[in-house]
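the two lines:
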Amino acid sequence: MPDLSTNCAGIRSPNPFWLASAPPANSGAQVQRAFDHGWGGAVWKTLGVPIQNVSSRFGAVDVRGTKAVGFNNIELITDRALDVNFREIYETKKKYPKHAVVVSLMVETRQEWEEIIKRAVDSGADGLELNFGCPHGMCERGMGSAVGQEPKVNQEITSWAVEFSPVPVLVKLTPNVSDIVPHGLAAQAGGAHGVALINTIKSIIGVDIDRMVPLPRVGGRSTNGGYCGSAVKPIALHMVAQLARNPQFDIPISGIGGVATWRDAVEFILLGSSSVQVCTEVMLRGYRIVEDMIEGLQEYMRGHGFDTIDQMVGKAVPAYSEWGDLDLNYETVAKIDAQSCIGCQLCVVACHDGAHQCIHPNASGSRVPTVDESECVGCNLCQIVCPVPGCISMEAVDNGYSRGSWNEFVAGEAKLRPKKGAH
Amino acid sequence: MSKIAKERAESVFTDFKAAYTPQQALVEANRCLFCSDAPCIQACPTGIDIPQFIRKIATANVKGSARTIFDSNILGMSCARVCPVEVLCVGKCVYGEMGVPPIQIGKLQRYATDIAFEQGWRFFTAGPDSGKSVGLVGAGPASLAAAHELRRHGHGCTIYDKRPVVGGLNTTGVAPYKMRADRSEQEVEWVLGIGGIAVESGVEVGKDLAWDELRSRHDALFLGVGLGPDTLMDVPGADLDGIHGAVELIERFKLGAVDLQGVERAVVVGGGNTAVDAVRELRGLGVAEVTMLYRGTEPKMSGYAHEWSAAKDQGVRAHWQAQPVAFEGAGRVERIRCLRLDDRKQPIAGSEHVVEADLVLLAIGQSKLESLLQGLPGLSFERGRVVVDEHQATTAPGVYAGGDCANGGKEVVNAAAEGKRAALAIHAFLGGS
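prediction for all of em together
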């Protein structure tokens, strides 16, 4: 049986699945229930000066009948008294000594950081997470993403926290920046033991088109919120991998952003995360999703011969390359399996309207389309729209050309195959 | 003013396929793959752009959805309920190819069209007056579809029907667990709502109005007269009480009361869709024991398999490979003397036996109206059907035909398609473009 135990920046947990700092980790009763369901750790809902929240707080993007493919919130940090939070952290840690309890913090002054870190550590926190990411409300007060968007401020506050804290410090980064790397490096320079990313993305989730008010609606107004859920995973994966492959960056990553299933978790781990944090899917489906996450991860590890999480971390990072290093001579064409094709011809219309006009209705009257391989550029669109798993495959073609990237071509080191589909 | 009686025996029926709630419609609409050159469209005689109307339901553009449906088929509301979708659009849904339940196109179409009726949405207006007039004989689906399309092009229309009620078989013949007469009447009113369609009910052309007179009144004619009365059996005892043509009895209980009290064992002779409707209807009307008596075998019957399956679920029995040779009883039928038939439908010697029955419906076909139409010179007939070309034109100039009288007896949706096609041809005949 593969070992799921995790050590992320010195924070140990029985598995890499942590609740992210958010409503599911708002109270002791919730976190303890989550641990009973199998969660390996929890990052407590951000503590600071308790705030007052609005109604309503959440919004969602539904796509073709699937609810909440994307999600956003305008909720702020904890609205519960700090005494109560710290007492519950203490009780939780006492009851679940092997689980990771990380406490997320957000205050302003050096003195406030010193005080709140002391209280968090005294209550038994296994680690701290500095919330430099919240993109709504708190940033207007000079905290959250207002800190995360300024590498110098990030580094300075991180260094305070590291100075005051005897336990590992993670810096939670905001994705609301043009390049994540300077911000990860700033946290590292400040002495952070690791980073957690991504926080939510600045967003307007939608508009009430009858009232003409953006969503979520608070009376007659709204504000921008933080976007999250499955829809943001690609953005999160990119930012995680950007840091993971950067030669100067060498501290652990806790991956966040659209983790809903064990597959998502595997992707984050392969791109360099040593733990993953989950919020939205728990808000939508509850703590019980972790059972499948654990089983799925174990089966994946078994199938690929991994004994420990550490062996997996970053395994896909070397294959994340610059465009200029991709092999332009690698050629694929679409193949349609006539046996499993159901004749919906979604590939035909997708290719005709959205790609290179090389998939055609079958002239013989069959509903199975034909691919003009001499025109097929191997773009993948047909495979993406095909509703039948495995029906369309992209098969490599031996065109006689050896590897040749753009960079190699520019350097005069490679010959490129003739372009296809460019008329 | 409704011409449909309030008290009708058919009122005991409820819908066999329940209407969708908005939530159900949304879930189902979102399952549609939005196929390109979709097989469901190809399977629809009226060519409704089904993926498009379903997508519009999914985006809450129900008005646009209804417009898409009605633009192809003005009788889309009744077709949604009465179409044998299992052998048309739904039967061709590509999901079937992957073993996934097909999209319930009929129920989605009903959802959109019912809302359109409830909301009173109207999508079409009459074209500028062309000064031409068209006479349409028969007030069934074919003529209604033709008249509506003709009005969109500005031609005046008058529909003639011998019955007091309008709508043809949609009103008098559709199985009441699919649609009841009052709903058909609402559809008729909705179609006539385009304005400029006169309806002369209770006028039988060829009897109350001479064909010559009709021709002289109009610039073109459309024949949508349907089929004639039930074919009866020429065997001893066929005139006993309790023996009826199936279409005739169905019309009676759809439009008024029938007294089936005391009927314990009903037999419906035939194996087509009228027979299958009749057995289901008799069960629904409370007859305890209903048997379908058919000359052929179950796999060979012409009634739809899905309908017969539902009949069996209702407890209907079958008596396969048998043929009545005499009806017996004292004044009223009590039993049917039958012969067994072999696989080639030939009588087996010595196989005579008796089936008890106190009600017999004959669903062995309907006569063609060739003799009625003899008054109109220039028509040609083939096995009783009016011969038409691909534009529904008959061999008589200016005379077009569609629906059962031309196709021999098909579905409402075929009549709707043929009526519309004829209207476009008539429009061209009258000099339109």
